[in-house]
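DM between two lab members

TW: hey, do you still have the 5'-3' exonuclease family protein entry open?
JB: yeah, one sec
JB: this one, 334 aa:
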Amino acid sequence: MVVAMAAQVRINPRALTPTTASSAHTTTASSLPFLLTNQRCDTNKTRPWNLRAIVAGFSSSGSLNQTVGGQLSQTSTHRIEPSESERNKRKKKRVFFLDVNPLCYNGSTPSLHFFAHWISLFFSQVSLTDPVIAVVKIEEHEADDVVATLVDEVLQGGYRVVIASPDKDFKQLISEDVQIVMPILEFNRWSFYTLKHYIAQYNCYPSADLSLRCIMGDEVDGVPGIQHLAPGFGRKTALKLLKKHGSLENLLNAASVRTVGKQYAQDALTKYADYLRRNYEVLSLRRDVDVNLQEEWLSERETCNDLAILSNFFKMLEETQKLNHRNRSHSSNG
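TW: and the structure you got?
JB:
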């Protein structure tokens, strides 16, 4: 898949139209604010909506796959190296990463209304004028790996990072300078999740999150833990050992040369070390995706035309959705 990751990407109105979504999932766009614009304010006319992002559209199966506009730079390994003064200047500025794909679905159903609602709340109440980089997957790499790679680049530039996503995998990236903001359906709002929240919830640091999931397993990702191999090895034991050793690799290395816990835990760690390392490979986010941060993605956004731009954009999406529905009906009747 070729994707767009360029400043000023022109949006195709078909790009985010869920062609399999029910006709009930339509949107009244006139009241929705939208802040995906990096253009200078013009009160006399509405300019084309431009997005600094990786952008994709729905396939007939409802999954995001086809991208529009721009070209992804995947060849250069050059990274932005700001001066010390630039680092100090940027230190308190935030850069948002928006995980687009989960917002396009209400449960398992593609929904334009759901997408419009949460995007509207995000830009009007959360990111405001801070730069936003929207992501979907690129060829051979999932969106979370792309985000993890770019997060490292942004942090090297002296920024703070906020990842907007309901995906729990991003918790392994949380630090003093990396937060998560999640859509909370029952409260109809986005909610920030920080390092303090993580420690209060799990009584350990995020560095142990991935290691804990490797031991306990992850049903959503289809990764079994070792309970079926070592029934006595539960969450309490795993947390205790990880708090002491810090990470799965440290724990496995220690267990290979000395006793680290009770006999059942020692036996499990030595006997199933390779099994646990394979889990780590599956669950860990990659940070070596060949994508490169562009300086223009980090500029403050202009927002004064957002309401008009969103209204026109969603009007086009609705018209395209209706046209697709009529075409499908005509094809089935033919």
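TW: got it. The longest strand covers residues 50-58. The domain at 206-283 is CATH 1.10.150.20 (DNA polymerase; domain 1).
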